[in-house]
Amino acid sequence: MALAIMCSGGDAPGMNPAIKKFVDYSYKKGEEAYLVYDGLEGLIDNKIKKATHQDVAGIVHIGGTIIRSSRSKRFFEHEYRLKAFNNLKSHGIKGMVVLGGDGSFRAMEKFSSEFDINFVGIPSTIDNDIYGTDYCLGVDTALNVIRDALDKIRDTASSFNRAFIVEVMGRDCGYLAVVSAMISGAEICIIPEVEFNTQEVEKKLLKEIEEGRNYILAIISEGSKNTSQVHAWIQDKLGLETRVSILGHIQRGGNPTVYDRLMAFDFTIKAVDYLLSHNDSNKVVVFKNGEFGFMEIEEVVSNKYQLPQHYLDAINFLD
Amino acid sequence: MALAIMCSGGDAPGMNPAIKKFVDYSYKKGEEAYLVYDGLEGLIDNKIKKATHQDVAGIVHIGGTIIRSSRSKRFFEHEYRLKAFNNLKSHGIKGMVVLGGDGSFRAMEKFSSEFDINFVGIPSTIDNDIYGTDYCLGVDTALNVIRDALDKIRDTASSFNRAFIVEVMGRDCGYLAVVSAMISGAEICIIPEVEFNTQEVEKKLLKEIEEGRNYILAIISEGSKNTSQVHAWIQDKLGLETRVSILGHIQRGGNPTVYDRLMAFDFTIKAVDYLLSHNDSNKVVVFKNGEFGFMEIEEVVSNKYQLPQHYLDAINFLD
Amino acid sequence: MALAIMCSGGDAPGMNPAIKKFVDYSYKKGEEAYLVYDGLEGLIDNKIKKATHQDVAGIVHIGGTIIRSSRSKRFFEHEYRLKAFNNLKSHGIKGMVVLGGDGSFRAMEKFSSEFDINFVGIPSTIDNDIYGTDYCLGVDTALNVIRDALDKIRDTASSFNRAFIVEVMGRDCGYLAVVSAMISGAEICIIPEVEFNTQEVEKKLLKEIEEGRNYILAIISEGSKNTSQVHAWIQDKLGLETRVSILGHIQRGGNPTVYDRLMAFDFTIKAVDYLLSHNDSNKVVVFKNGEFGFMEIEEVVSNKYQLPQHYLDAINFLD
Amino acid sequence: MALAIMCSGGDAPGMNPAIKKFVDYSYKKGEEAYLVYDGLEGLIDNKIKKATHQDVAGIVHIGGTIIRSSRSKRFFEHEYRLKAFNNLKSHGIKGMVVLGGDGSFRAMEKFSSEFDINFVGIPSTIDNDIYGTDYCLGVDTALNVIRDALDKIRDTASSFNRAFIVEVMGRDCGYLAVVSAMISGAEICIIPEVEFNTQEVEKKLLKEIEEGRNYILAIISEGSKNTSQVHAWIQDKLGLETRVSILGHIQRGGNPTVYDRLMAFDFTIKAVDYLLSHNDSNKVVVFKNGEFGFMEIEEVVSNKYQLPQHYLDAINFLD
């Protein structure tokens, strides 16, 4: 049976190790492995290529994805989905592994409901905001990139009386911000899920500054949308010269960490095994309480990821 | 109640975040926190100091341990253990958190059987070879240091026809070697637990070299004790110029990763909570199947860690 | 003779290696070495301490400055400068090495014109904007921190059709931006010294996008003050989804590079030797055309650093 | 005019930026650019390809060399050199830029003396042991890789009473070892150029150990060939448990630093300009006292690089 792998939506570190494992493991299982380049756009335009071991040699340590990714407006139209299906059919491809997030999974659900194509999704986004799984591919690498940035700021922070604001990714989800705040000992953490109580924090920090605290580190999730407001608040109310860093796409780069490589391998093996042993798969591989499992795509995309309570609590107990 | 923290035996990344959490969390719980400097030697010589928040400010991102560690011959003698106990007593210390490995835990078991002192051990060694726990503090950082070295070798490996041997830590346990081989795509992995079948590997690799393979990466666990022998074998039998790297203590350094910081925090909170709620604790915090638990020190030290079967299997399936 | 070292103004990587060399070299020369903590503020408040080798052990690889820095409004008033002088006098300190920039040098010039105190400045700022020297301490480390960030963005950039804007430091000087653009192959570089010709660049890039270019990297110096404007321009005129990273103080952190350590040692030896052999020194150590020399402080602070022509030219020849 | 670039001998970081600049700059000058794959072996086997901008896109930040390198026994025979020349001729190639070391330059000298082919060599080796130039491409990256390893060892060194030996590259030349020792504050440095006086060092270090020194760092150049002997000496005479790291080819990997990228660009521009303006070039680009120049290949290969006196002196003044 021929299988294909595709990346869709934003890229995440760990995609390349998943692609390599997909190719090696498919051939080991006696199946043919195909690569879909440029995501859904490439699916429509038939950028589909039978993979060789050579195509995926020496890629496990590279960030991003060698088969690239895309978003596609055309894929919302039936005519282009039909075109995509005919492309897959012409190669004899029966099942697809899709590395992506909610949007990509929704597209594949629609696609597989219309055509005879199976797919298994692997949750891949540094935001870690997909329902049903504790872990999304790329999160550990992103967190360690943020950690490295915060460690550098710590070096310079203690040299001078200052406040530092670091904005990290997370449009709808404060996961990256909370964990970064915990492991860096930040004093302030602001995320979309929790209203930030300036008055209480102000009182506490003013007291600490009086007692000798000479710098403050604040982590803000981009989704909370108030970096410049917090900037003004710290300067005005706490009286500290304040500097802002916005990490942006640096968080998506970097060589995948050991954890992301191991997770990429495990996610991929689960996905391929599922495709090979089920005829109508329309699932997402999830990692929950230390174990891998499968969830209906419909359940994944129709629910919203909730940040676990102990992370929400952590925000109020930053030292 | 007064509690103390001590490092014993070899150091591991993650000890500093554990020390910081110990101090902050103890005070938050309303207890006094003490630091024992220089391990068992310092316990005997009363290098014990009541901790301030200032002592542990800005240390989470530093490798090694700011309170240092040691091995101690004197501690094998009763007279010195008595001295150590009297030191603890003079500070009113009732419980200790000990970051260390098997040897350290054995020493503490003896100590606590003779004197009225409780302790909880936190498994801390990059070798990941302690019975009863899936994870020892420091392993994720060590693996990522190895990964970084292997990624660098990959850069240069493909420039030239060569074999590269990298010796990693692990005196009795091939954990670091196996995982490093998996995540780097090494062709050869040699560990103490598995006899290495040169003939079969030789046949396979000679065939691949004939087909165009232009470099080989071999990971060897220091405990397998045959790095120079393997060197000779590759040069003679596979005909490739071969270069050796021995990573040594580089693997123990480096800023603790996000995972090691989070684990350090969790291990420490479990240990302190246990000491505060049990009167005769003599336990090790273990992390098994994704959950924290406690194991009798006696059980931990009287059993040998076994590398899980899927790691042993992985050695035979390196691509 | 007693000498002191002080950091003033913004910190820069390389200050710690300079501090260590200052202490070790002064004692080797048979002189006493003092550390002034907290910059000019500490000078006024007598935070001056005779240094031991132990104070500076193990600091060469740490970013920031262990003796901290400050800016001081009080130092503008004669009464506080008198206080500062009396502090130095009470320790018998005759000469000072000052790690800082223009502002700090101006303060010291005033100070040394009023009181019997010699000083030699070492240009220390990642902006590389001090007149008379080709190199300021910290620049190589800052450039490599920026490089690391840009390498990460390259990983992810080619995965997706996008533009990336990275804002780097440099309030009055585009040095960091130009060199970063050169070594990363950026398509756009905007600095305070050169007016940016949007029309011409727009034409060129639109043509390249038509021919297949799938991402754009733009480096902007913070001093050019138009990051959000460029953001809008790229989105509107070039039609690429655009993401912004603002590196901020990450650029000031990080372990000093080999080059910054060697320069720190050389700058410091030159400064100490000068103080020991001249009675009325009021100089800055400069590094010009590969050689060290000394320049009157007055000349340094009354002239403006000019970015060399070949850097200005480079902006128009980015590929 | 058609020009070609080739790597020969061991690889060095910075080769990729040089290759990219070669292609971009040649086309900018209106010339054709060719890539010779697999070094001299590829020259004989006609692995020569006209370069496109696409071939060299996104390579500046990658270690090693994308066109690979080799050593060649066949090239010592006239028949193969003739074959190589005919290959170049068939592509119309008149001049070559060769990234390599002494051995490669000698081969090219022979080659260009027999056939109508010009070449300019760019000194490329992390050993920094080529006569006539202060700098060889790759050295700054290699030094920073070593620095990173030593910084990690420092983290763990102070945790425990131990000695650490780190063996770095340098078969005939102690450059890497000396500079690494200087910037890491090593206590011992052993290189091929200087006889190591064990007795004197032993006396000095035993005194320091008595006074409280609790670890020793020794850097040894591989060319001094006595790592295991020094190991035994430290354990026996200084009484410290001693651990060895051999960095090996890790030193050749890693993303090229800012300095190596800038040097790669400058070396390459000089080389191409020379080829385009001289008809019988047989030169090496050298960087001496901060300036670029050209030296007859014959002079380069018939002289031995001497480590500057201040580096030799530094060995006796390690603190």
Tags for this model:
homotetramer; 319 residues; alpha/beta; Rossmann fold; 11 strands; 20% strand
Secondary-structure map with pairings?
The structure is a homotetramer of 319-residue chains.
Chain A: E1 2-7, H1 15-28, E2 32-36, H2 39-44, E3 48-50, H3 78-90, E4 93-100, H4 102-114, E5 118-123, H5 139-157, E6 162-168, H6 175-184, E7 188-190, H7 198-210, E8 215-221, H8 227-238, E9 242-246, H9 258-277, E10 282-288, E11 291-296, H10 297-301, H11 309-316
Parallel strand pairs in A: 1-2, 1-4, 4-5, 5-10, 6-8, 6-9, 7-8
Antiparallel strand pairs in A: 2-3, 10-11
Helix pairs in contact in A: 1-9, 5-6, 6-11
Work out the oligomeric state of the chains in this entry: homotetramer
The number of helical runs of chain A is 11
Q: What are the low-pLDDT stretches of chain A, counting only 5+ consecutive residues below 50?
A: none
CATH topology (fold) name of the largest domain in chain A: Rossmann fold
Question: What's the CATH first level of the largest domain in chain A?
Answer: Alpha Beta
Order of strands side by side in the largest beta sheet of chain A?
3-2-1-4-5-10-11
Rounded to the nearest angstrom, the distance between the terminal CA atoms of chain A is 56 Å
Q: Biggest interface, and residues per chain?
A: A-C, 37 and 37 residues
Helical residue percent band of chain A: 40-55%
The 3D shape of chain A can be described as: elongated
What is the string of SSEs of chain A from the N terminus onward? EHEHEHEHEHEHEHEHEHEEHH
Gyration radius from CA atoms of chain A, angstroms: 22 Å
Mean pLDDT of chain A: 93
- Major sheet description of chain A: 7 strands, mixed
- CATH architecture assignment name of the largest domain in chain A: 3-Layer(aba) Sandwich
Percent of residues in β-strands of chain A: 15-25%
Count of separate structural domains of chain A: 2
- Look at the helices and sheets of chain A and give the structural class: alpha/beta
